Amino acid sequence: MDVLPERHRVARNSPLAERLDKLRERVAEASIRAKRDPAEITLVAVTKTAAPEEIRELLSLGVHDLGENRPQQLIQRATQLQELATRRSQYAESAPPPEKVRWHMIGHLQRNKAKPLLPLVNLVHSLDSLRLAEELDAQAAKIERRIPVLMQINASEESQKSGVAVGAAIHLAEQIDSMPHLQFTGLMTMAELTDDESKIRNAFSRTRELFEEMKWHKIGGANLRHLSMGMSGDFELAIAEGATMLRIGSLLFGGRADADDAEEEDA
Ligand SMILES: *Cc1c(COP(=O)(O)O)cnc(C)c1O
Description:
about 45% helix, TIM Barrel, eight-stranded parallel beta sheet, alpha/beta, binds pyridoxal-5'-phosphate, disordered C terminus, 8 strands
């Protein structure tokens, strides 16, 4: 995670800034316990319950990775921020350059949403089928981009959950890796919502083992470097199991948004 510049730390004491500070402390502590460098862990702030002004504040606090689980919402928020940046640069020549935002698509993605989404997105975490991969590859070709993607793994093997079954993951990874306009960058998983820590840890460690197996097979080459796992309730366990990206929503913005409700909405 980016180290917080000193100047942010002294002057800011809004509730959001305090929650972010606290979170960064916990990430640092969990990293130290796991004998890892906190600098290798990226915080993705999941903004689905955030107010627009909270998003702007977060950017000013140095968090530039933002995630949404619904395509429509990501498109809307990304467009709003772009418009704001354009207005600012038009009316205030001396304004500081707009903060660079990296948008992460973390929720279930339907193929018909790929086209409007892709120009705005920096990393898709939720690639979960060959058909979706083919659609993303085709749409990325049209805009002449190579889109970084993570494959979502259903490591807890809950039947209602999206994600690729552990046993099918290697084969699909090889197929994705051969697509010219996708860059296979790693794996994502969501653990079960449970108080049973061993179940959560198990889902994370299975995903890490799969990741290591892919490395061993040289799938993705040097690009294979991300494990997106860990949310507000379980990120410390995820860090212990090797997560490089945390997706944190409610700890920053409050509210307990349903993590996997995108499917009904988009259907
Ligand atoms: C909402 C969501 C998160 C964040 O969950 P919190 O528990 O609020 O931190 C992470 N990942 C996905 C896929 C989500 O939909």
